[in-house]
Amino acid sequence: MVKLLGISGSLRRGSYNSALLSAATRLVPPETTLEVASIRGIPLYDADVEAQGIPPAVAVLKDAVVAAAGVLLVTPEYNNSIPGVFKNAIDWLSRPASDARRVFGARPFAVIGASPGGFGTTLAQAAWLPVLRTLGAQFWAGGRLPVSRAGSVFDEAGNLKDAAVEAQLKQFLAGYAAFVRRASA
Predict the structure, then answer these.
(1) Sign (positive/negative) of CA torsion 179, 74, 144, 104?
(2) Which of 22, 41, 183, 185 gives the lowest tally of CB atoms within 10 Å of its CB?
(3) CA nearest 145: which of 122, 127, 129, 162?
């Protein structure tokens, strides 16, 4: 069994990225699970706060990442890059610096995302590459999934309604799960 963890980089209740992650939990291949974690409640990074100890919301997310064989980041794109709240959460996970290897070191990561715009989250996904490389994560580059025009891909309840995107997501997840399986062997 391959255990994956998915993290949406959006805090918005009606988030297309959270909806994409929800769809992914139903479309993972057999012998694969995808648990969902949240960045909600993670404070802005502050070394003074860190000096008092890792905040509980950060510790919970760190433990979830460490328990997973692979991590799927589901990223919005703000101003052609990574959303601040999502980057902040990843920055916290790398603290203290001595713990970054335990959390990220050679762990397989993949990135997908959804956007109401016409280019999906192509630039945000690319912006994650140097961050993940710096942290020592293993990035799966075997597929891309920047979902564009997300308003027409999901219904009002946040359910995936586009058959082509569903097929692409299923294919992406199958490739990523196979990569994680190989990396874990």
Answers:
(1) negative
(2) 185
(3) 122
Structural domain contains residue 2: no
Residue 185 has pLDDT above 90, yes or no: no
pTM over 0.90: yes
- Res 109 pLDDT > 90: yes
Range of the domain at 98: 8-174
Give the residue among 128, 127, 126, 162 at the shortest CA–CA distance from 147: 162
Residue ranges of alpha helices (H) inside the chain are 16-27, 47-51, 56-67, 84-93, 100-104, 122-134, 163-184
Residue 110, φ and ψ in degrees, nearest 5? -140, 160
Confidence of residue 124 (pLDDT cuts 50, 70, 90): very high
Compute the distance between CA of residue 108 and CA of residue 123 in angstroms, rounded to an integer: 20
Residue 40 in any domain: the answer is yes
CA distance 137 to 58: 18
